[in-house]
Amino acid sequence: MSKGEIRFNCARCGSDKFEFPSKNPRPNDVITCAKCGASGRYGDLQAEAVRQAKKHAEKMFKDIFKK
């Protein structure tokens, strides 16, 4: 993962290509893996993005203050 970037992969097949129901999906909209067809709620993806961003920020701050 590069700085400022969070990537998501399908838990089933590992693909990073997803189909969204609209240009601006809502939390309850279903997104689908473009490769294997696995699906999940967009809101769950948003929540995971927040968790990963917080974890990444915490690590950055720890690394900054170690020096």
Give a verbal description of the structure:
The protein has 67 residues and is of the alpha+beta class. The chain has one domain. 37% of the residues lie in helices and 13% in strands. It has one helix and three strands; from the N terminus they run E-E-E-H. The protein has one helix spanning 42-66, and strands spanning 18-19, 30-33, 39-41. It has a three-stranded antiparallel β-sheet with strand order 1-2-3. A hairpin with a 5-residue loop joins strand 2 (30-33) and strand 3. The protein is elongated and about 45 Å long. 1% of the residues are buried. The model has no long low-confidence stretch (mean pLDDT 88).
User: Total number of helical segments?
Assistant: 1
Based on DSSP secondary structure assignment, what is the total number of beta strands?
Answer: 3
**Biggest sheet strand line-up:** 1-2-3
Beta-strand share of residues: 5-15%
Q: Which whole number gives the mean pLDDT?
A: 88
Number of domains: 1
The helical percent reads 25-40%
Summarize the helix and strand pattern as letters: EEEH
Structural class: alpha+beta
**Judging from the principal axes of the Cα atoms, what is the shape?**
elongated
Set out the fold topology:
Layout (H helix, E strand, L loop, with lengths): L17 E2 L10 E4 L5 E3 H25 L1
Antiparallel strand pairs: 1-2, 2-3
Which terms would index this structure?
single chain; elongated; 1 helix; alpha+beta; 13% strand; 37% helix; 67 residues
Summarize the structure.
The protein is built from 1 helix and 3 strands.
